[in-house]
Amino acid sequence: MHNNEEVLLPTRDFLRQLIGQPKVKTKELADVLRSRGVFTGTDQKEVTGPILIKTGLSPYEYTELRESYKTKEESPKSITRTISWDSDTHLLDAIPDIVDYETLLNDQFGVFSVSGMSGFTALNDDPNHIYMDFKIERKDSVKNWGENVVVHDGRVEIRKGDDGKSLNISLSHTAPETREFGDKVASKLIKHFKDEGHISQSEQVKVIRFSDFTNEGRVLFLNELSQKASHSMLSFVDTKDIHFSPDHDIANPPHDIAWMKDKIEDLKMKGQGLHSTFFVSDVAFHPYIQLFGIQCDYTFEGDNCSGTCRILFEFSDKDESARGELTLNLSMLKLDANDTGASRTALKKQIIESLEKFKMEAYDKHRIQKP
Asked: Which of 148, 154, 221, 338 could make an S-S bridge to 366, C-beta 3.0–4.6 Å?
């Protein structure tokens, strides 16, 4: 920070809202305290936040937090999960009559609020395909007055499988807070379904996580899912982006990639034909590489629609193995034909859903097989 730079420091409620922003990370707050010689038993915001609210921030500390926060909002993403279903009851009839979903937000910093919620409704009059749309409002003290409220949309969608023996749970989100709230809503419903006997108490939600694969299995999974998906509307065209790093915990990598071990922490490559580069196409390198994400271009053709699109397959929060869940982001859509006049949102959803069956097949094939 320049010595002549003027900084208006947030205090009290404004500081509380800044600390509560999801992009102000727990580690950053803990680092501020440690730089003062203050150490806490945990880095959780519930502990470090009140200390900083009471003591305030210096101009330097505030500037550092503000700059780390100023990143663009995430584009719409989708995650899907599955769990077994053991009931003949329609999904719409299995929903509890009254649920106070707003209490699930549980935001002690006063940053977030639920500004809209539809309640669960049958999609296209199908009682076994239900959804709930919601809006989360975020007070953003970093932005200028008049622009300091941001609203993000989210959706929880649940559909019975064709065999009636499974549920597909889809969470659509545009920001961390909509993902977290949708996750809590889905968990609340699953607990209710278990309590009512629709789902066995021993059943667990099947989630595709970064830690479910060995390094080589993860490369094979993402390559197969992105390039060879059957049962879908998509035809693979090219790989545009790859995000990976060498695995620093594995010694003696092959000579051709040994230079990366001490020089590369995290690498994103953009270009053409990246799936044919030696460190992706040569299986001898796979045990030494952690592949985090891959983005590909496709053509697609469905009922009365066709065009091109780009999809990012990414393990979000990859550094937290317990939360590194596979996320699909359809980041670009160009239509050549759309005879039914379906919305772009509906078409994106249709394309992503067409990958679901093959995604689970590829997952079962390449994941770490547990006894």
From this structure: 221
